[in-house]
Write a structure and sequence with these properties.
Layout lengths: L2 E9 L8 E6 L7 H11 L3 E6 L6 E6 L4 E2 L3 H15 L4 E6 L2 E8 L2 E5 L4 E4 L3 H7 L12 E4 L4 E5 L3 H6 L4 H7 L8 E8 L2 E13 L2 E4 L4 H13 L6 E7 L7 E7 L5 E16 L2
Helix pairs in contact: 3-5
């Protein structure tokens, strides 16, 4: 059987070994779903992407975590777009055909920006119950928690301060009970404005996989959903923020969120290639 080459890139990485790592299989023709899941589990990164030909876009892309496939995720979209732009010379304009639809990405050197789908909204559990699920007092939550979907539905919860974001310690049974999205997966973004830097948002993203609670390094889909939450809360466009994740994981990620007067939600960041490899399947 043929070998399958992949590249390791770090996304939302202001330093080379920061941000969220991703494996990009630049030509996945011949792989079936089980093999893609197996390779992703073997690499044990948060996600891997598998590139196929597309008649309607620059490429069709499948996104897998070690446990399941995703319809959309931000750092795999950006990392794959930059990789394809470099390998194929696409001139900085990349269109990816994902399960969530066609996602345009603009690449400028080692930085890329995607345009997410328009948001849809769904009510969440009462704030007091969610605070308990996050291991926080009821007063920690400000604003109205909501499920937002700009490609992958997630619960978005605003907290009163970065200190409370850092203090969040989800209770696994309660978290599971209250944060399930439309794909029946438990996940939530908790975030707060930084009063000392009005252009900065401090955030953490929690999810459950294989029955264990995890925390993501940098979550582009959640950043896009945050843009949808802000619009739904009446935040006047245009606006732009830097969302910082990773302070509590030891690996910083810097995500650029912008929403224009047209209310289009854009998420961007720096992509750095740090390695390459190949799998032989027998």
């Amino acid at each position: 059987m043929p070998g399958y080459r992949y590249r390791i890139v770090n996304v939302f990485a202001e330093a080379a070994y920061a941000g969220n790592p991703l494996a990009v299989f630049e030509d996945a023709r011949g792989l079936d779903d089980a093999q893609m899941q197996m390779l992703t589990r073997q690499l044990n990164l948060s996600e891997a992407t598998f590139v196929f030909p597309s008649e309607t876009a620059s490429a069709q892309v499948r996104i897998f975590t070690p446990g399941y496939e995703l319809p959309f995720a931000g750092h795999p979209t950006l990392g794959t777009a930059v990789t394809l732009d470099r390998v194929r010379g696409l001139g900085g304009k990349v269109m990816l055909d994902l399960r969530a639809g066609l996602i345009p990405v603009v690449v400028d050197g080692d930085r890329a920006t995607l345009t997410a789908n328009a948001p849809t909204y769904r009510d969440a559990a009462p704030a007091a119950e969610l605070a308990s699920a996050l291991g926080l007092p009821a007063a920690a939550i400000v604003g109205t928690p909501r499920f937002i979907d700009t490609g992958s539905e997630q619960l978005v919860v605003q907290l009163a301060s970065p200190e409370l974001v850092s203090a969040a310690a989800p209770d696994l049974p309660l978290f599971n009970a209250l944060t399930f999205n439309k794909q029946n997966r438990a996940c939530a973004l908790v975030w707060a404005f930084d009063a000392n830097d009005p252009g900065t948002i401090y955030a953490r993203f929690f999810w459950v996989q294989h029955g264990q609670l995890g925390e993501d390094f940098g979550t582009g889909s959640a950043c896009a959903n945050l843009g949808g939450w802000l619009l739904g809360a009446g935040h006047a466009a245009p606006f732009a923020y830097t969302m910082i994740q990773g302070q509590d994981t030891g690996r910083l990620a810097h995500l650029r969120l912008s929403v224009g007067v047209d209310r289009a939600i854009k998420v961007g960041g720096r992509v750095v290639e740090v390695g390459r490899g190949e799998f032989d399947l027998e």
